[in-house]
Design a protein that fits this description.
Structural class: alpha+beta
Shape: globular
Protein name: DUF3906 family protein
Number of strands: 6
Largest sheet: 4 strands, antiparallel
Helix content: 25-40%
Number of domains: 1
Strand order of the largest sheet: 2-1-3-6
Strand content: 25-35%
Distance between the termini: 63 Å
Organism: Caldifermentibacillus hisashii
Number of helices: 2
Length: about 100
C-alpha cells in the first residue's frame, strides 16, 4: 500500500505533536537577588540539565555577585510569599547556580 504525500505529511505532523508532548518538559527559571525572587522564564527542555544550560546561557550575565538562579520542573503554579520569595508546593529536582 502506498501513501500519498498528504498522508505522509499528516503522519509527520502527528508524530511531531505527540513527541513534543512526551519528551519536552517545562521548567521555571527563577532569579534570586538580595531583595526578591523573580520568575525570569519558563523554558522547554528535554531534561533538567538542558534547562539549566539554557538558563545559564540566557541569564548568567545579568546576575550580580551572590545572586542565585533556580531551575526546576513546572509541576504546579509558582507562588511567592510575603517576602517575595518563591514557594515550591511540589517536590522534585532543582538545579541552582550561585554567582560568586
Amino acid at each position: 500500500m502506498t501513501k500519498t504525500i498528504v498522508g505522509i505529511l499528516a503522519d509527520v505532523f502527528l508524530f511531531n505533536n505527540i513527541s513534543e508532548g512526551l519528551f519536552m518538559n517545562k521548567y521555571y527559571v527563577v532569579l534570586r537577588t538580595k531583595e526578591k525572587d523573580e520568575l525570569l522564564d519558563v523554558v522547554d527542555a528535554l531534561s533538567l540539565e538542558e534547562a539549566m544550560a539554557i538558563a545559564e546561557t540566557r541569564y548568567e550575565e545579568q546576575m550580580e555577585v551572590r545572586d542565585g538562579l533556580f531551575v526546576f520542573e513546572v509541576n504546579s503554579p509558582l507562588s511567592f510569599n510575603e517576602k517575595n520569595r518563591f514557594v515550591r508546593n511540589s517536590g522534585g529536582e532543582m538545579k541552582i547556580l550561585i554567582r560568586f
